[in-house]
Every structure is written in structure tokens, then in C-alpha cells.
Design brief:
Number of strands: 11
Number of domains: 4
Structural class: mainly alpha
Shape: elongated
Largest sheet: 3 strands, antiparallel
Bound molecules: glutamic acid
Helix content: 40-55%
Oligomer: single chain
CATH superfamily of the largest domain: HUPs
Distance between the termini: 75 Å
CATH architecture of the largest domain: 3-Layer(aba) Sandwich
CATH class of the largest domain: Alpha Beta
Number of helices: 23
Strand content: 5-15%
Strand order of the largest sheet: 3-4-7
């Protein structure tokens, strides 16, 4: 209960209460679009959360003066995951979705963590108890369990029977005076009012048919999701709520809360489900739906955003492949969001990433950044195998890395820089070492002579493409009078230290002319100086 004491300066609290509880129109708030992403810090940011944050962000940024808020809904203290808030913020920032207001940014409607707003909920609930929209419930957990069991026995949906609605105010006072434990519940109305969902159109759910009066304040005095969510949306001046479909059945409760307070509700848009490729429901826990997983795999944030909007729509064209976040903002329209659920298409993600990679490679400063990223990956994963001296320097040079990137990209072999570190490509980052080439000295052919001849040919040929290299190698084989097999084996090993691997021509193309010659000379030096 530490949060109950002093988290809110009294002046701010009373300003907020004046602004919200006693004024219904709240015109100042309503002028500009204000939307929020309101995750509970119970795990990592997953694709569903990213989708919700992105659409709220796009909606805000596509409107003049629109603001996007991050609010942490951490009132369920039992489900908190350590560091989840920091990780959520990191992932949003990686994706480029920066809140205008939030726990780290601050803002004039804060605090932005619900656990720091407990006094506001305490004050707010008094209003609902006073106007009899809410009531104290003294039922014990044991009684609730019996009610549930009884309903199950009769084959009915287990739900609270609203028994404590009956207590008069003096009976309530008396129970409170005796310190009887209690929760506070909202009186559901027999018929829930429909609302005009911005995506689904006229929508209604008669929740009173399916459930008992919901709890607003729990026995630990913390608010439930429903209560804190509505109180905060109001006090933070939220104009539109864009959230996942799974919250749709909560909306009638939220609307009833607005009505009970006498506040204007925001407009709602419930975003359809994201499904796995096979049409099953997306799990929130699996590794492969977490944003961090895609980041670690080396996908670009823009590609991940394209992946998400491919399912959700919001644009005139089908998908946003290759769009930057800025372009998405310019072209986004809420009316174009899809109304039906959609499936993930991992191949599309690779393709989107390839397109962003190509665009980056074509632009000066971002090209340099891609090269830098590859260098970092190589140093992290292959530092030991890079060799020493000039060869190492050359492998780490921008020219060498840039050439490899261009070559691999043009051949459609990579979707993301990290693919260059896959096993097929490992030779690019491993200079031949004494231990890996010295047995060439005892090969059945004169390898030193072969390498000299090869360097000679490569340094005078005019072009350096697959056809030309093929021809040169064939002539080399013929000129030496050996059969092709030992020649190719030796060349592969001399170039990479590998006894097996890609075709020699492919290796040479990826290494580039200068570096190919450099490697052959390096191996020649080892063979002739040991
Ligand atoms: N805390 C809820 C969540 O985790 C927020 C739902 C809403 O946007 O109202 O998604």
C-alpha cells in the first residue's frame, strides 16, 4: 500500500478532480486527438501490443496536434514482471513509436503509472458510491465459491448474484465500522447501451445476462482494470480508444462507468485479431511473437511495422511494404483499417526486410550504418577467426563488407545483414590460418605453383564475373595438367581454410577480386615460409 501514501501531490489531485469529476464536457481535452497505449507490465511487448501501439501512434500523428501517451496499467500487483516497463519502453523506442507523454517522458496528465494514481481512484470511487452506481460487497470468498458451485450445479454460467446490492446505508455503515472486509462493485444495468464502434459499427453486449456486478475496487483497495482504465482515460483527456478485440466485451462496463460519473466517453475502435499463419490464435507468450525476438534476429523496425500493417490495413494500397514510419503517418487513415482478423505471413516479413535493406544500401549514411552493423556482428561472433594484420584489417574494411553486402543482396541471398553470418558465409570472416592450410604442402599437386598461377590470372583479367571466373579456372586446370577436383579443393582451402564449402567461383565473387588475391597470397606465404 506504499503507493497510497503521498504519490500524488494534493494540489495536482484536486486540480485533476476539479477538472474531471465536476465537469462533464471537458472541452479543453477534446480539442485534439489524444490516444494511449496502456499495457500491463506482465510480460514482453508482443506483436499484438506493437500493433495496438502503432495504430494509436499513427492515428495521433496523422492529426494536427495529436498526442500519443504511454500509460502503464500495473494495478494487478500479483502479475508484475520485473523490468517489464523498461523493456516495453525500449522496444517501443526501437520501433520508433515514441510517446509524447509517459512514465519516462512525463507530461501534465501524469503520473503515467497507475500504481502512482491510487489516491485518484480512491477519491473517484466515493462519487459512485455516493450516487449509488456502486456499492460495498461484503461477501466472503467462501460464499462466492458456493454461489459459483451452485450455478454450475444448475448448469448456469457461474456469476455473482448481486446479493450485497440489498444493504441499506446504515447496514453498510455498521459493517464498515466492524471492519468487515469488502470490495466495491458496479451496479450493472439490465440492458447495456450500444455504441458506435469506429471499426465494427453499432455494437452491443448485454453483459448483465452473462455476469454479475463487476468489482471496481478490490479488497486490497487497489482498483480493477475496468475502473482505473476509465478514470484515467477521462482524466488524461483520451479522445479515442483503439484496442484489441479482446476488450470489446469490457466496453459496456466502461460506458456504464462514464454514464455513472456523468462524463463523455471517448470513441472506441476494436482492432481485429492477429492470427498465426495456420489460423490459430496468436499466443502472447511464445518467443516468436515477441518484438525483442525480431530485433535480435536482425529485422529492421520498419519491416516489422510493415508486417503488422499488412494484416491490419489502414492504407489505400495493400500493405505498406517499404514504407518508413513517416510515410505510414502521411498515408494512414482509420477508415481503411481492416474489420476482419488476419494471419501472419513470415515470408512477407523477410521480403519487407529485404526491401528496406536494399533501400539502406543505396543511401550514403544508412549504407554506412548497415556496414557498421555487419562489422559489429563480425567482431562479436568471429573476432578470433579474422586472422591478424592486413588480412584482418581488410576483412573489417568498409569496402570489403560493402562489396559482400551488394553481392549477396543482388543475388537475393540475404534478407538481413545477420544472414551474412550464417554457416554458408562463415568463410568470409575467417582468414585462412596456418593450421587450416598447411596440409596443402603435402597435397598430390603443387599447390604453391597453382596459387601463383591463379593470382597471376586474376590480376590481369578484365572482368570479375561468374562466367569469366569459370573460364579462367578451367584454363588454369588445363594449363596445370591436373584434374579439376584436386585443383578446386586446394583453391577452396587456400581461400578459406575449409575443406568443404561453397563453389570456388561463388567464394571468389563474394570475396571480391582484391581480397581473393590477398587471401591466395596469404596462404602462399604460409606454405612457402614454414
Ligand atoms: N491494460 C490493458 C492491456 O493490457 C489495456 C486495455 C485497453 O486498452 O483498455 O491491454
Amino acid at each position: 500500500m506504499a503507493a497510497l501514501t503521498g504519490a500524488w501531490p494534493v494540489s495536482r489531485l484536486s486540480r485533476c478532480l476539479r477538472r474531471g469529476l465536476h465537469c462533464t464536457g471537458n472541452l479543453y481535452h477534446r480539442r485534439c486527438v489524444r490516444v494511449r497505449f496502456a499495457p500491463s507490465p506482465t510480460g514482453m511487448l508482443h506483436l499484438g501490443g506493437l500493433r495496438t501501439a502503432l495504430y494509436n501512434y499513427l492515428f495521433a500523428k496523422s492529426k494536427p496536434g495529436g498526442k500519443f501517451l504511454l500509460r502503464i496499467e500495473d494495478t494487478d500487483q500479483t502479475r508484475l514482471v520485473p523490468n517489464a516497463i523498461e523493456k516495453l519502453e525500449d522496444m517501443l523506442s526501437w520501433a520508433g513509436i515514441s510517446p509524447d507523454e509517459g512514465p519516462s517522458q512525463g507530461g501534465s496528465y501524469g503520473p503515467y503509472k497507475q500504481s502512482e494514481r491510487i489516491e485518484l481512484y480512491q477519491e473517484s470511487i466515493k462519487v459512485l458510491v455516493q450516487n449509488e452506481s456502486a456499492y460495498h460487497c461484503f461477501c466472503t470468498p467462501r460464499r462466492l465459491e458456493l454461489v459459483r458451485k451452485e450455478a454450475a450445479r444448475r448448469g448456469e454460467t457461474p456469476r455473482y448474484d448481486n446479493r450485497c446490492r440489498q444493504w441499506s446505508s446504515s447496514e453498510v455503515k455498521e459493517k464498515l465500522a466492524r471492519n468487515t472486509p469488502y470490495v466495491i462493485r458496479l451496479k450493472l444495468e439490465a440492458t447495456a447501451e450500444p455504441w458506435d464502434d469506429l471499426l465494427k459499427g453499432r455494437t452491443s453486449h448485454n453483459i448483465a445476462d452473462a455476469e454479475g456486478d463487476p468489482v471496481l475496487i478490490k479488497s486490497d483497495r487497489f482498483p480493477t482494470y475496468h475502473f482505473a482504465n476509465v478514470v484515467d482515460d477521462h482524466h488524461m483527456g483520451i479522445t479515442h480508444v483503439l484496442r484489441g478485440d479482446e476488450w470489446q466485451t469490457s466496453t459496456p462496463k466502461h460506458l456504464l462507468l462514464y454514464k455513472s460519473f456523468g462524463w463523455d466517453p471517448p470513441r472506441y475502435a476494436h482492432l481485429p485479431l492477429i492470427l498465426n499463419k495456420d489460423g490459430t490464435k496468436l499466443s502472447k507468450r511464445g518467443d516468436d511473437v515477441q518484438v525483442e525476438h525480431f530485433k535480435n534476429e536482425g529485422y529492421y523496425p520498419e519491416a516489422l511495422l510493415n508486417y503488422v500493417t499488412k494484416i491490419g490495413g489502414g492504407f489505400s494500397s495493400d500493405g505498406t511494404t517499404g514504407f518508413s514510419l513517416e510515410e505510414m503517418i502521411q498515408q494512414f487513415s482509420l477508415e481503411r483499417l481492416r474489420r476482419n482478423s488476419g494471419r501472419l505471413d513470415p515470408e512477407y516479413l523477410d521480403e519487407a526486410n529485404r526491401i528496406h535493406l536494399g533501400a539502406k544500401l543505396g543511401r550514403g549514411c544508412s549504407r554506412q550504418q548497415v556496414i557498421e552493423d555487419v562489422r559489429t556482428l563480425v567482431l562479436a561472433g568471429h573476432s578470433q577467426s579474422l586472422g591478424e594484420g592486413t588480412l584482418r584489417e581488410q576483412i573489417l574494411s568498409s569496402e570489403y563488407i560493402g562489396n559482400i553486402l551488394d553481392c549477396a543482396f543482388e543475388e537475393g541471398r540475404i534478407m538481413k545483414p545477420k544472414d551474412l553470418l550464417k554457416s554458408d558465409w562463415r568463410f568470409l570472416w575467417s582468414a585462412p590460418r596456418r593450421e587450416t592450410v598447411q596440409d596443402l604442402k603435402t597435397a598430390s599437386i603443387d599447390v604453391a605453383h597453382l596459387l601463383e598461377g591463379c593470382c597471376q590470372r586474376l590480376s590481369v583479367i578484365t572482368g570479375f564475373d561468374a562466367d569469366q571466373l569459370q573460364t579462367e579456372l578451367q584454363e588454369l586446370v588445363r594449363g596445370e595438367g591436373y584434374s579439376a577436383r584436386p585443383v578446386m579443393h586446394s583453391l577452396r582451402q587456400a581461400l578459406s581454410g575449409l575443406k568443404e564449402g561453397p563453389r570456388v567461383v561463388d567464394m571468389m565473387l563474394a570475396l571480391g577480386r582484391d581480397h581473393t588475391i590477398q587471401r591466395l597470397k596469404h596462404t602462399l606465404h604460409i606454405l612457402t615460409h614454414s
